[in-house]
Records
---
Amino acid sequence: MVEKGSKGFEVSELGEKMGIKMTSTTEMSFDQVRVPEENLIGDLHKGFYQQHKKAGWNFDQGRIEPKWTSMAKMYAGRVGVEVAQEAIQIHGGYGYMLEYEVERYYRDARITEIYEGTREIQKNTIASAVIGKRG
């Protein structure tokens, strides 16, 4: 864990987003940051596998299956967007208006197909796992 105020660690705001406005989006810069050993969380160089809740149980069992987490993320994102689009359709012109919550639901659902790996990245992960097992 890098503590706020550590030498070489900077956080910069990236600006306003289309959706998920309740959180800020920042860029973090690490320039020769020194992290004390007692700040290490989990195993060194294994952070990706320790920060995903969906993979937590498999990880605890000693099984790491990026293919399954990629499939779940891609499917959940797609379904969320489809549901939000249908809600806008049902509300007609009102669904497109900022004064109604339904437009926010779409914006917030849409980002789930982008952050933590776009659909294309998820497809690459799935394809690599499938192709790798054929050979």
---
Amino acid sequence: MLTVSVAVHRGLNLDSRLCHTARRCPPAVQYIAYMNQPDIADVAIREKLGAYEDPYLSQTLAEAKAVESVTLQSGAVSVRLVLGFPCADYVAELKTALQNHLQPLLGQSRLDLTLRAQITAHAVQRTLKPLGNVKNIVAVASGKGGVGKSTTAANLALAWAAQGAKVGLLDADIYGPSQPLMMGLTGAKPLTADGKLTPLLAHGVEVMSIGFMIDQEQPMVWRGPMVTQALTQLLGETNWGELDYLVVDMPPGTGDIQLTLAQRVPVSGAVIVTTPQDIALLDARKGLKMFEKVEVRVLGVVENMSVHVCNQCGHVEHVFGSGGGARMATQYGVQLLGELPLDIRIREDADGGAPTVVSEPGSARAQAYLQMARRTAARLATLNKDYSRAFPKITVEAT
């Protein structure tokens, strides 16, 4: 007869039917729950499963309401989980962690794990309404230029797409649009239908940029109001598909343009990109405080160019210092979303129109972006949801 070994620990509320004397037995005593009593074993496994804290959500599966079903069959325990972030590449990692967590209950039984992503819309600034087909707009910003913000934004969008989400990328850096080059769309022109622009598609991501409308060498000699008007048009007059995330590559800085954009674009969360050195951190702090002033939640900090690993000898060197992003995250009570490498191949991939996540998805540097993307989406999943879409639009007509 196939059995499941059940460990009784302090704090684990097992069904008393497992053993009439369970409460009188010491914590280390082992009991046997037979698989022909699935209701008993199901309770134990569900409680133990619900107590597992996901490292990306920083919540237990019970708190996240992630346990969809637990089914006991001959020789296997089938678990179905629903997570609030893209998880197509998370199955193997989570399965290993859950096997270790559930081992006292599994015994010789096999664990079968099925993950399903359910990405919902999250609240934006109180004065703004969410954008039609787009569930979540995530702004990628920096206090200064030259920290790799655009490269980070491109790889973030591509990582979410690789993990199973529907993603768009809006290049809001009007003065220096770089996404057409990075996404391999140099020279491409969007079509117009019914008065709206049709975004271009690159590597499974919908892309829109002012760079599609102008000559590559033409300078944008525009004042602030013209820039903000151009961006709001690109955002609102683009025929976006049904998107889980729209990544906005913001202009660098914290001046009038950036502030106006942060006030006009309905943003679910912002990501601050910095490098480890103090001069970059000073400006990154200003960017973080800017979003706080306009009631945009900061999802966390990404430390770019964190470490350089020599591809010849493997020597590790923190060219721009170390720990700056972590200290900033701790200081402002936000999450450190990732520490990305300084690697010439990341630059080469972006210049070649196929950023690292799509050009070399199995590499360690691509994995750093994928991990960062998962932490970012998981952090967003824990925030307040947007319930306005659940209510019908009411109109009053004069009779």
---
Amino acid sequence: MFSVGLPGTMIRSIQVVSEAFFRGALALARRIPSPLAARLGHGVGLLWYHVLRYRRGLVAENLAAAYGLSPRDGEIRRLSRANFIHYGHLFMEMLRLRKLAGDELERTVTFVGLENLDTALARGRGALILTAHLGNFDLQAMAVARRGYQVLIVSKPLRNKALERLWMDERASSGLRISLHRNALREIFRALAHGGVVGFVLDQHARTDAVWVTFFGRPAATLRSLAVIAQRTGAPVVPMFTWRLPDGTHVIEAQPAVETETAGDSDASALHNTARYSAVVEAAVRAHPEQWTWIHRRWKRPPAAAPRESGEQP
């Protein structure tokens, strides 16, 4: 966002200054006691909801459509407000992520069902993690890596390369491996072959390599990559989700593996399994709706020729 009309030296100077600012913010945030950080996060969320109001209407519309209610319904208003409070807590937690997934890990995180991940890894083909932007999803990845699992995630590059280095350093501090390449298949296959764990976030609108499957009753463009890789490698798909408890701690739950099914040719099978993964994600979001990213434009109109579940109308 800094590149339009600015010389290269000025761009680099802005990036250096922004990196220094955020390094200072991260250092300061790590010194804040957890109870104070929680109060600050709550306040940031309320400020966003009541004053800034950025995408507040979109959150209400998405929730209303998902639950078949009016955006003005009292339950939708309650969920919308709670959702923005979640964003405030998430903001403060992201600033303190290295501390939460490091020194405070045992106090911060409770693992449930990790035996399901171990059972999947015992097959000798690595494991593919099906997850979503639910709760503090970055903390989940870092905490799993801190437990000793070999974790690889594929992340979108940032425009500001200085901030990108800073943020990737924060995430990698737990032993998490991050690929910023658009075509990361080679790294994914290598990680699986060595018994690693590869995370896939399957709850955002996919512009490419997408199929349209049902999500909260509406067609949603969803990456087919997870299904395709599971078919090609035989790696089990383990759903794993996290959510925040009222006391500020986090639960990370690994569920039993979703077995890959065959439904015709490879394309039909990818569509079929992606629909099954979408249903698993929806169930996790329904359990903790206030902690999902309703602020994202998840549902867009599908092209007439887009691959979709049987029975869906264009």
